[in-house]
Design brief:
α3 packs antiparallel against α9, α10 runs parallel beside α11 and α10 packs parallel to α20. The N terminus is likely disordered. Strands 4-11-8-9 form a 4-stranded antiparallel sheet. It is an alpha+beta fold. It starts with a helix and ends with a helix. Helices cover 43% and strands 12% of the residues.
Length: 649
C-alpha cells in the first residue's frame, strides 16, 4: 500500500501538468479567437469580443471545480471528514435554536452528479453545507423609505451584485427599521450573494464589506460555514460553466425568469479537501491574472494595429495644395488598380505589421508625389494591414473619401477637356438650375430659398479640374408626401432599422401591414434616395428599388445628378463630418432640411461620376471578399477554441 502512494501522487501531478499545458501551449489561439460584434449605434465601444480569452477563463474555472487544475495530495484530510464537521456544527446550531431544523433533502443520485470527482472529494447539496439560505424583501412592501443618509442601512440590489465582485458605484440606503423587519437578510462579511431574478440570474459575489447592509428580493443570501468552505472557492464554483448551466436549467420562466429558494437549496456542490480549496483558489487567481495580462496585451495590439491603419490611410487623404497636374491625374487610376491587385492576393492571418523596410517619411514638395509615396507604404504592407474587420471598414471609408476627392479614378486629359463633348461640373450645375426652375414653373416642386455661396475658406480641399463645390440642397429635391398607411398595406415600408449603417444596403424588407405602423409615413418612389434624418442613424441611406412608404424620420430625395454617385457622397466622411457638426448645433434629434441643404459636397463631371461609381463598387466588392475570408478564418479559430475547451474538460 505504501509503495502505491507515490505513484498516485505522480499521476495526479501529471494530470495537472497536462491541463496547464493546454492553457499555456495555446496562447496564440486564445488571443487570436476574436468575435466581431454588430455595431449598435454611434458611440458604441468595442466592436469585438475576445472570445478565446473568455473561453480560457471558463476553462480555468471548470478545470478548477472538477479537480483537474492542481494536483491532489493524499495527505489532505478527505472532504467527507470536513462534511461531518459541518453537519455536527449545523446540528448544534439547531439544538441551540439559532437556526431552524432544515427539511431532509433527497440523496444525490448517480444521474445527478455532473462529473466524476477526484479521490477525497465529495458532492453535497448546498443547504447541507450552509447555515442560511434566504432572500430579501422590497422596502415598499414593508412600508420603509429609501434615504440618502450613509448612516442608514446600505441596501444591496441585483445591480450591485456583479460577476465576482460587489458593485457600489450606485449606493442605495433604507431606513434602519428595515433591519428590525427583515433580520434574516442582514448581511455579514463573507456572505455569498447570488442574483436570482431577471437577466442577471447567476451573477455571484462575496459581500466583503464591514457595513450594515440588507438585500432586496432579487438577491439570494447564502451563508456557508466559511471556516470549512473557503469563500473564494465557493465563488469560483458558482461562476463556473457547470453551475451556471445548472442555474439556467432550474430557473422558472415567469414574466421574469427566477430561481426558487427550494431549487437553490438542492444545488449539488463539489467539495475538495480544505487544503486543496486553498491551492485551487491560488492557482485560479494566478491564471486569471495571466488572462488579464493577455486581454490587455491583445486589446493594445488590436488598438495599435488600427492606429497604424488609420494613420497610413489618412495620409492618402491629405488635401491638395494646388490644382492637379497630369502626374496627379494618373495617380488615382494607379492607386485603384494597385488596390484591386493587392486585395485580390492571399493575405496573412493577421501578423502585426512591420515597417522596417518601408520608405522613411521625408519632405515631398509635390502633393501628387506625396500621394504616390503614401500609397506605396500602404501597398507594401497590404497583407498585414487589412486583417481585421475594423481595418477593412476603415479601408472602405477611405475608398469613398478618395472617390469624392477625385483621387480614385483618372481625370479627363487636357485633350478630352478641350473637346466639344466635355461637360465640367459647372455646366452640369447650370443644367440642374434650369431643370429646377422648370419644375418650379410647372408647380412640381416648391421654390426653395437661395443657398449661400461657398467661400474659399469653407472648402476643405482643392478639387480636380472640372469639379465644383456645391450645396447639397442644389443637388436634390426634398419630397414630402405624407400619407396614411391604411391605404398602402401591401407596399414595402422602410425605416432606419431597415438600413445598414454606412453601406447603403437594405438589410430587411417588410410590408406596411407587417410593420404595424399607425402614424403617417412618407410616400417614396423607385429610384429615390431614402435618407435617415434622425440620430444616431445619420449614415443610413439607400436608393429605393421599389415604391413604398418610409418612416417620417426619413427624407425621400430626388437626385438631380447620378443617384449612385450622390449616395456614395452621402456615405463619405466629407458628408458625415458636416452632418455631425450640424447635428450638434440643433436641439432636436432630427436633422432639418435647412441644415441638410447647406452641407457642401464635391461634384464631379457627370461622365466621371459614372466611372467613380463603377470603381468604388469594384473595390467595395473586393473589400467584402476580404471580410468574408476573414470571417471564415475567425469562425475556424472560434470553433478550434471551443473544441480545445470541450476536449479538456
Amino acid at each position: 500500500m505504501a509503495d502505491s502512494l507515490p505513484t498516485k501522487s505522480k499521476t495526479a501531478s501529471k494530470v495537472d501538468s497536462t491541463n496547464l499545458n493546454i492553457i499555456t501551449d495555446h496562447i496564440d489561439i486564445w488571443t487570436s479567437a476574436i468575435k466581431q460584434k454588430s455595431p449598435s449605434g454611434r458611440g458604441s465601444s468595442k466592436k469585438f469580443s475576445l472570445h478565446g480569452i473568455k473561453k480560457l477563463r471558463e476553462l480555468i474555472l471548470e478545470l478548477a471545480v472538477r479537480g483537474k487544475l492542481v494536483p491532489q495530495d493524499e495527505k489532505d484530510e478527505p472532504a467527507s471528514v470536513l462534511l461531518e464537521r459541518i453537519a455536527a456544527e449545523k446540528a448544534q446550531l439547531v439544538k441551540d435554536k439559532k437556526i431552524k431544523k432544515p427539511k431532509a433533502l433527497p440523496e444525490i443520485s448517480k444521474d445527478e452528479k455532473p462529473f466524476e470527482l477526484p479521490v477525497n472529494w465529495s458532492f453535497l447539496r448546498l443547504e447541507n453545507m450552509c447555515e442560511l439560505i434566504t432572500k430579501g424583501s422590497s422596502p415598499k412592501w414593508q412600508g420603509v423609505s429609501y434615504t440618502d443618509n450613509p448612516d442608514d442601512v446600505l441596501f444591496v440590489t441585483s445591480e450591485n451584485v456583479g460577476a465576482f465582485k460587489i458593485l457600489l458605484d450606485k449606493k442605495k440606503y433604507v431606513e434602519r427599521t428595515f433591519n428590525e423587519i427583515e433580520p434574516r437578510s442582514i448581511l455579514r462579511k463573507n456572505d455569498f450573494l447570488m442574483n436570482i431574478v431577471g437577466a442577471s440570474i447567476g451573477r455571484c459575489a462575496i459581500f466583503d464589506l464591514n457595513e450594515v447592509a440588507n438585500i432586496n428580493q432579487a438577491v439570494c443570501l447564502i451563508r456557508s460555514f466559511s471556516k470549512h468552505i473557503v469563500p473564494d472557492f465557493f465563488l469560483k464554483f458558482f461562476n463556473s460553466h457547470t453551475c451556471i448551466s445548472y442555474m439556467y436549467d432550474k430557473q422558472v420562466e415567469n414574466a421574469r425568469p427566477n430561481l426558487s429558494m427550494s431549487n437553490i437549496a438542492k444545488f449539488i456542490i463539489p467539495i475538495p479537501p480544505i487544503e486543496e480549496q486553498h491551492r485551487i483558489v491560488a492557482k485560479v487567481d494566478e491564471l486569471m491574472s495571466l488572462c488579464d495580462a493577455l486581454e490587455a496585451q491583445t486589446e493594445a495590439s488590436i488598438s495599435a494595429h488600427q492606429t497604424i491603419v488609420e494613420t497610413l490611410l489618412n495620409a492618402l487623404l491629405l488635401p491638395n495644395t494646388a490644382q492637379p497636374t497630369g502626374a496627379q491625374t494618373a495617380s488615382g487610376s494607379k492607386t485603384a488598380n494597385s488596390l484591386s491587385s493587392a486585395a485580390g492576393s492571399e493575405h496573412a492571418q493577421s501578423p502585426d505589421p512591420s515597417f522596417e523596410n518601408s520608405h522613411e517619411p521625408h519632405f515631398i514638395d509635390s502633393p501628387e508625389l506625396l500621394f504616390k509615396e503614401n500609397w506605396q507604404r500602404v501597398a507594401e504592407h497590404f497583407d498585414t494591414l487589412f486583417t481585421t474587420s475594423a481595418s477593412i471598414d476603415t479601408l472602405k471609408q477611405t475608398i469613398l473619401q478618395l472617390a469624392v476627392m477625385g483621387k480614385l479614378v483618372e481625370q479627363a486629359s487636357c485633350e478630352a477637356r478641350n473637346s466639344a463633348n466635355y461637360e465640367p461640373a459647372a455646366k452640369l450645375l447650370e443644367r440642374i438650375a434650369a431643370e429646377k426652375a422648370q419644375l418650379i414653373a410647372d408647380k412640381k416642386i416648391k421654390k426653395q430659398k437661395p443657398l449661400p455661396a461657398i467661400t474659399d475658406q469653407e472648402k476643405p480641399f482643392e478639387l480636380p479640374h472640372g469639379w465644383e463645390w456645391v450645396r447639397f440642397g442644389d443637388l436634390v429635391n426634398f419630397k414630402a408626401e405624407l400619407v396614411r398607411p391604411e391605404a398602402f398595406l401591401d407596399f414595402d415600408q422602410v425605416g432606419p432599422d431597415s438600413i445598414e449603417k454606412g453601406t447603403g444596403q437594405l438589410i430587411k424588407r417588410r410590408t406596411v401591414k407587417e410593420s404595424g405602423i399607425k402614424g403617417p409615413n412618407s410616400r417614396f418612389y423607385n429610384g429615390q434616395i431614402l435618407y435617415s434624418k434622425i440620430r444616431p442613424s445619420l449614415s443610413k441611406a439607400i436608393i429605393a428599388e421599389f415604391d413604398g412608404l418610409c418612416s417620417a424620420d426619413m427624407y425621400p430625395l430626388e437626385s438631380m445628378i447620378y443617384s449612385k454617385y450622390l449616395l456614395k457622397s452621402i456615405l463619405s466622411e466629407v458628408f458625415l463630418e458636416q452632418v455631425r457638426l450640424a447635428e450638434n448645433r440643433i436641439k432636436m434629434p432630427k436633422l432639418n432640411i435647412d441644415s441638410l441643404s447647406e452641407i457642401k459636397l464635391p461634384l464631379a463631371p457627370l461622365e466621371e461620376q459614372h466611372r467613380i461609381v463603377t470603381k468604388v463598387d469594384e473595390l467595395m466588392a473586393l473589400c467584402d471578399q476580404l471580410k468574408a475570408r476573414l470571417s471564415d478564418a475567425q469562425t475556424t479559430q472560434l470553433h478550434l477554441t471551443d473544441a480545445i475547451v470541450e476536449q479538456a474538460v
